[in-house]
Amino acid sequence: MSKKIVFAMLVVVMFSMGQTCTPDADMDGVKDSDDSCPNTPLCATVDALGCPSDSDNDGVMNGCDECEDTPAGDTVHGNGCTVDPGGSVPSRCQGPDPRAKAIEYSLVGMIDANRANIQIKGVVENIGLSNYDSGPDQQDIQLWEDDAMVHSVQFEDLAVDETIYIEYQREWDLGDEFLPGFYKVIITYDPDIRDDGNLNNDDCRETNNMVVRRASDINSLLE
Known about the structure:
By secondary structure, this protein is mostly beta strands. The protein has 2 domains: about 1-50, no CATH class; about 65-220, Immunoglobulin-like (Sandwich), CATH 2.60.40. It has 1 helix and 8 strands; from the N terminus they run H-E-E-E-E-E-E-E-E. Strands 1-8-7-4-5 form a 5-stranded antiparallel β-sheet, with no helix packed on it. Strands 2-3-6 form a 3-stranded antiparallel β-sheet, with no helix packed on it. It starts with a helix and ends in a 9-residue tail after the last strand.
């Protein structure tokens, strides 16, 4: 075998090794060493720095957002589409259907003119045609402050039209430049929940399992 052929084979092998050894943890096409925004959702579109955009500023990244022109101030589902106006119940699907319905802000008490203790409350209800019946450690409700989970609660059973809540309190300072941008409530399930033989804990509609609201709405409580 000629030296030229051997050299060409070595180049191909080295190139292949370089390709497979370049880490890209969030699989957005930008290697980790160049990625300024790690942990980007798989559905999001990113720029050369690996950062997603949110053209309508609703908290759902472009590429994941099915409604990219959401009006300012709307609370949205995880797909970026506006939550049912007035919290109305959409068409009911067969089986249990826990949904993240709303995020509510309330004033606990003023500390001074610019600071207050506020409560963030997530609302979850079963709008399906069947009760949700499950076991422990298979489902929970999470409350997120931007990209950090701040609280979670587990639940097991949820009757038709029954409502449960997740609540979290924090100090809110209008002078703080690092206040969060969004709050999210997410219903999560054990990855194997559909394989446990219990049809009563198979969510019949998972597109409503997350709701997102702008944190700036809290400012009106201090006015």
